[in-house]
Amino acid sequence: MAQIIEHEKSVRSAIRKFRRIIKDASFAKEVIQWVFPNGAKDNLETYKLNTRHGTLGVGIPKGQWNTRVPHLFTLSLDSSIVSPDVEINIPLSLDRRISGVYVKTGSDIWLCSRGMFTSYRGKIKRDLTFSYFYKWLLDVKDGDKTALIIPVAALTSPDIANQIAEFVLSVNELKEKYKNAGNDKALHVNTVWNKGLEYEGKKTKNSIGAETEYDYLHGPVCNELQRQLDKIDIKTGRSVVNNKNIDLAIIENNKAIAIFEVKTSCSLSEQLYKGIGQLVSYRYYYGSRDTKLFLVVPSLKSNKKNLVSLMDELGIYLVENKRNGFFLSCGGELKKFLREQKLI
User: Fold this and answer.
1) DSSP 186
2) Torsional sign, CA 159, 222, 108, 143
């Protein structure tokens, strides 16, 4: 099981590594004045990174704040006032009251959040946050306990900027929904199909296994796929939704005409075999014999020919998540294929 990094020396090492990676991934750096919710201001070295969601700003304060080191992120660098959309504060020793942690899993290190966020009405309850981010959650060793955390990005990921931006955007959406709902109960969705991030009031536990490709996260990819499909003008009477089982579907008359299952591994492993079984079962329960099935995996580096042949035999379309979008392994952009198949 993945382990939260507790000791100060190891925490500081992870922070230094994170900052080096951000510096290397940035296209510019400048000193910018940041304004914080309590009215305080600070001039911070700010790195700018290109992402699918615009320019990501990462503020690097000098030193530390008390016993924690802040990690400041914003997708609003173009506004007149720059303030953090998300603060992930990392304690220098185990402290469950502080939002951020670094997690060690195998040879990799992850930047993660305990799910502590504030909105204009104060702190958002953590069970509400976890329910909102339920497809992201991972089970980790937390000192002498276990805990659920939200993974933000693996430090070795070549896609770290996009992963952080997806997390920041998702937190902003949670805050906006919380603000507009008026109360916690108003955020709950009880229908079979839901629009947007799933909200079931249920904590789903996932463990990081040795075969997991750590730079590829389940929750962020589900979100990004939905964002891509939401940009498409689809036929009247159809919508892009999910439910407590299905990562994403296109439905018409409450029936799935296309089902998407996201997996974090593209090797012939338990994950892929499970994904195949899930798609076939979901078609039976939520769709019809004509429902199109799509298995979404990371960009394929090996075993591509065998995997594509296997999926062809099973009548499942293999979709690769690449830096510039989602593409069928047999060729062509997913959005174009969906149009050709008259699914949208």
Assistant:
1) G
2) positive
Instruction: Using alpha carbons, list the distances in angstroms from residue 134 to 44, 125, 232, 236, 249.
Output: 33, 14, 26, 30, 18
- Half-sphere exposure of residue 320: CA atoms within 13 angstroms, side-chain side: 20
Q: Count of CB atoms within 10 A of residue 331's CB?
A: 7
Query: In this structure, are strands 316-322 and 292-298 parallel, antiparallel, or unpaired?
Result: parallel
Instruction: Find the Cα–Cα–Cα–Cα dihedral 281, 284, 288, 292, rounded to 10°.
Output: 0
pTM of the model: 0.77
Which tokens in the block code for residue 25? Answer: 């991934």
Bridge partners of residue 69, in order along the sequence: 90
Residue 157, SS3 per DSSP: coil
Specify the DSSP class assigned to residue 188: -
pLDDT at residue 4 greater than cutoff 90? yes
Q: What is the pLDDT of residue 1?
A: 81
Return the ∠ at Cα 291 (arms to 253 and 206), rounded to 5°.
Answer: 95
Q: How deeply is 172 buried, as exposed, middle or buried, from its count of CB atoms within 10 A (0-12, 13-18, 19+)?
A: middle
Q: At 201, give phi and psi (nearest 5°).
A: 70, 30
Q: What whole-number distance in Å separates Cα of residue 23 and Cα of residue 179?
A: 34
Q: Is the pLDDT of residue 64 over 80?
A: no
Distance CA 172, CA 180 (A): 12
**Three-state secondary-structure class, residue 254:** coil
d(CA 292, CA 204): 26
Name 35's bridge partners.
41
